[in-house]
Amino acid sequence: MLIRLLKTEVIKLRRSALWLIFLGVPVIPAALGSVNYMYNIEILKDEWYSLWTQHTLFSDYFFLPILIGVYCSYLMGLEYSDGALTKILSMPIRRTYIYISKLITASVMVLSSIVWIGTLFFISGKICGISSDFPFKDAAVWCGLGALGGIAMASLQLMLSVFTKSFGIPVAAALLGGVSGIAFLAKHMGHLYPYSLMSYGMSSNSPQQLYENGCAVFVLVCVMYIVLFGLISSVYISKKDI
């Protein structure tokens, strides 16, 4: 039944314009970051690493949180529209599968977005004239851990979208969360706050911070948040009246 729900999610996404947002939004922080890098190229001497900090400066605190908020609000909004959730709840399926299918779908979307951001990073570096070798290993770590942090954020956003039928409230919470994550990163607590996990994983402030602090605690915290928010959402759905 879970597989059937996932197939249904794929069909719904094929018919939506969400992929236009997926392709278009990451281009904005990539362009802003590249321009900022070129204007400050005399100060930013670390080439690929400096360009990465400029790209993630814009994407991790503003654009990506909003994008994840939109993903999750859209996924749950589909079920709240026209009483679709009531129909699903009346079917002979485990209600926890509803949340799990949404989280898996959101996770694929988050991972796809970050892979696209990594691709734009590579393209931007070539356009900016960076001639040194591309740091494939480091970029893979930044994107992989950033995706894990983004999935933890998505699990929280899905929980908010489960609790409310509003599309805008969870998206606003994502934006405020992304901005507030800056304070936690500044206090070296970015690996503990749900809305700063993605920025921390992507090494937005310093590409070396994960290597200095280690990533075991970061991964553990991400998994704990994913499980916690998933349990809360699943219990809520399980007890929801038809």
Description of the structure:
The protein has eleven helices and no strands. The chain is mainly α and 242 residues long. It has one domain (2-239).
Explain briefly what this protein structure is:
The chain is mainly α and 242 residues long. It has helices at residues 2-14, 18-24, 27-39, 48-80, 84-89, 96-127, 136-163, 168-186, 197-201, 209-213, 216-239. It has one domain.
What's the N-to-C terminus distance? 19 Å
Content of β-strand = under 5%
Number of domains: 1
Q: What is the gyration radius calculated from CA atoms?
A: 19 Å
Report the count of strand segments. Answer: 0
SS summary, helix count: 11
Q: Percent helix among the residues?
A: over 70%
Largest sheet: none
- Rounded mean pLDDT score: 84
Low-confidence stretches: none
Give the overall shape: elongated
- State the order of secondary-structure elements, H for helix, E for strand: HHHHHHHHHHH
Broad structural category: mainly alpha
Please render the helix and strand layout as text.
Layout (H helix, E strand, L loop, with lengths): L1 H13 L3 H7 L2 H13 L8 H33 L3 H6 L6 H32 L8 H28 L4 H19 L10 H5 L7 H5 L2 H24 L3
Helix pairs in contact: 1-6, 3-4, 3-6, 4-6, 4-7, 4-8, 6-7, 6-11, 7-8, 7-11
